Amino acid sequence: MRIEVWSDFVCPFCYIGKRRLEQSLEQLSAEQPIDIVYKSFELDPQAIKNTGQTIHEKLAAKYGKSLDEAKEMTANMTQQAEEVGLDFQFDQMISTNTFDAHRLAKFAETKGFGKEVAERFFHAVFTEAKDVGDHTTLVELASEIGLDKEEIRKVLASEEYSKEVRTEEAEAQEIGVQGVPFFVVNRKYAISGAQPTEVFVQSLQKVLDEEKSTPAFESLSPEDNGASCTDDNCDVPEK
């Protein structure tokens, strides 16, 4: 089974959805290996690097909300993160441009470190308040999981892997991705949003059980999509 995951490193529900997916895989009775591949998606391709704004100020400005409403949004996300063992520190979080982080993630994938880099970048953003738009920070983070510092610097100083990032973002548009996280299983089944773990379990088990008789592309998400973020909104459904 191959699971492709479109996400952005500054998307809180992408990290929550990632962890829920991982927890669901622990419950599956899969006889075949499961390969997870992380795909590039920028929530805000025009974002500039660290502006000095707090995440609450950015959310309030971006979504037309008050600071109190923005703090309420992040409090809800923090609670959902805690439920899957994640520690979100929104008060210190640095909002930034993620294009170079995505390029570096594509490079890491060629070295067999795709999943490790994705986890390291998410944790750096939401728990450690690190700026993944900063090249020095990216060198530090990627080298921690085994990549060579000189190779990392070479990639960041060039335009390498830009085409790969843009291709994956274009692919997301082609298949109708409206927000992230977005999961595609075996190139045929779609799961939208950070669904509850039990929904992932049921959906993925359905793939394992019924794949041969399923149509070419089928949504496995419930009618009410899971929590996700878009360039225009960060949807926090009622629990």
From TrEMBL:
Domain DSBA-like thioredoxin as annotated: residue spans: 3-205
Extract the Gene3D superfamilies matched here: Glutaredoxin (3.40.30.10)
What the entry lists under InterPro entries is as follows: DSBA-like_thioredoxin_dom (IPR001853), Thioredoxin-like_sf (IPR036249)
- Region entry Disordered: which residue ranges? 212-239
May I ask which residue range the UniProt record assigns to the signal sequence?
none
Q: Which domain of life is it from?
A: Bacteria
One Pfam family name from the record? DSBA
Which protein, by its recorded name, is this? Answer: DsbA family oxidoreductase
Q: Which organism is it from?
A: Halobacillus seohaensis
